[in-house]
Amino acid sequence: MGEPSLVRIGKKPVMNYVTACVTLFNSGNGEVMVRARGQAIERAIDTVQMLKRGFLKDVVIKKINVGSEDVIRMDGTRGNISIIEIILSQQ
Fold it and tell me: Average pLDDT of each block of 10 consecutive residues along the chain (91 residues)?
């Protein structure tokens, strides 16, 4: 199986990301990766839980990756930002 389709979580409402995941699964994708950084991590978890509980009950969490990335801020300083990648699979 190839790379999973990617849904990047940002500042939009959770339902937008749930709809994106449902659309990807319904178009034949076997795996979808939900990826978020920083404060959007909470929204990513909410997206996955809402998807599993209310929309696609046969979706399972295949893998969760956590880590951090180096970023350069607007003022030129360096910092780390947390990331999460949740790979979902439809059975």
Answer: 81 94 90 94 95 89 94 90 94 79
Look-up of token digits 């399972």: 60
Spatial separation of the C-alpha atoms in residues 81 and 38, rounded to whole Å: 6
* C-beta separation of 14 from 46 below 8 A: yes
Residue position matching structure tokens 């970023």: 71
Please check whether residue 4 is in contact with residue 31, taking contact to mean a CB–CB distance below 8 angstroms: yes
Give the per-residue pLDDT at 57. 83
Token couple for 81: 């930002």
d(CA 21, CA 54): 13
